[in-house]
Design a protein that fits this description.
The protein is 34% helix and 23% strand. The chain is an alpha/beta fold.
Amino acid sequence: MLKKRIVAILVVKDDIVVQSIGFWRYLPLGRPEIAVEFLNQWGIDEIILLDITATRNGRDPNFAMVRSLAQQCRVPLTVGGGITNLNHIYELMHCGADKVTFNQATLHRPDLLTEAARVFGDQCIVASIDAQYISGGYRVYDYLMGKTLELSPSDHATHLQSIGAGEILLNSVDRDGMKSGFDLDLINQTAYAVTVPLIVCGGAGVPAHFLDVLEKTSASAIAAANFFHFFEHSVTITKALTQQHHAIRHETHALYQSNDLDAMGRLLKKPDTTLEALLYLKIEKEVI
């Protein structure tokens, strides 16, 4: 059985990683290079870089940034934003990207997705769908137009698979930055519509939210953005907890079984006597 993946998404606005809240409010976090460095050390499975201003501003992908990130990235790197032709994909691959993701092209340039899959293989093509709940059902959200479309995410996912998408990245607009948990109904409706791997994002607030997706949906990968920036040991704790029940890649020896966690999944301080015993104990730094 294939192991489930834990994926980090870097939302980049004007070359700065930002916290996204509801697809309209953005708070600066720091440089992408620093984020990639830490995610590598923490044992993330994949990284998805989404440049949300490239398409909006009508500019090319930031090849220099991708090249810089790829040089230190030790996991598969997917890049999206500003991709309007095959030459962009060629250049991104030369810069070190493993996959590319399309969002606006899935709505307005589906021929580009099909041609990219033909040239590079569908394993390199990730189709991104933003979804919102409205009028009693889920609809695809067009972030450039700022409105929902008369198109269901499940139907859109089925179509994208048929024209060349090798993976689907499903984002919940309603749950984005809310920390209230993933939209399981949205995930299940979309998962039942496709046979390609489904990556889901939007709503991660505590490690238990990842476990909900694993237990109640057939998603292939669970992604988060804000969660991994604000919670100490977030990747390793999430993997340690989910590995107890499901097949998850977990390269570190840190299982946290002897550690107490609070309701948010943060490590609690050990008793002073335990800390004193550890004071002179040499622990080699683990390389993941």
